[in-house]
Predict the 3D structure of the following.
Amino acid sequence: DTEVTQTPKHLVMGMTNKKSLKCEQHMGHRAMYWYKQKAKKPPELMFVYSYEKLSINESVPSRFSPECPNSSLLNLHLHALQPEDSALYLCASSPLQSPNEQFFGPGTRLTVL
Amino acid sequence: EDQVTQSPEALRLQEGESSSLNCSYTVSGLRGLFWYRQDPGKGPEFLFTLYSAGEEKEKERLKATLTKKESFLHITAPKPEDSATYLCAVQENTGFQKLVFGTGTRLLVSP
C-alpha cells in the first residue's frame, strides 16, 4: 500500500460544530503532517508528528487540535472554526530520514459556514 | 528566512512545445529540493528529489536540474495531460521535516 488516504473528501460545518478529519497510511512512515492550502496558494505546514509525538506546531490556533493515536493514523479535530478556515486540508507522511520525501493524501475540502 | 520563488506564475504551451519552469531558492543550507505536481482539488504528487548542485533526474517528459541557487523543471514535448500546477519545495539543514513551498507554476498544455 503506497498511498495516504483522507476522510471525508468534503466537509461543511458551522462555526459551532465539532468535527474531525482522518488520515491513514500503511507505508511504515513514522512522520506525519497536516497542511492547509488555500485556493491558488502553496500548502502551509500546520503540524508534524514524529514517532507519534508532536514535533512541530506552526503557531496554529487552538481551534485545530491534532492527534496521532498510532503510527498509521493522524486526526485533526476541529472546533469553533471561522469561515476563513475554509481550505483544502492535506495530510502527508514520510520516512524519518533526511531529506525526506513527503507523500500527500488527496485532501479534505473544508467549508465553514 | 527561506525564500522559494517560482516563475513563471502561469505558462500556456501548445502540445509538443518544450519549455522550462524555474525555482529560485535562498536557504542557509539546502538538504533537499523537491518537485511536486498538483492537479486541481487534489494533493501534491511527488515527482523528484534533488540533493546537490549538478544533479539531474528524469521521468518521462520531465527533467529536473539543480544549481546552487535554482532548479529547473524541463518539459519536453508536453501533452495536455501534463497540465497541472508544478510546485517546488525546499528543506534546509536545520529543519529537515519542514517543506517550504514556492507558489507554483500553473501549466496549461493545449492540443
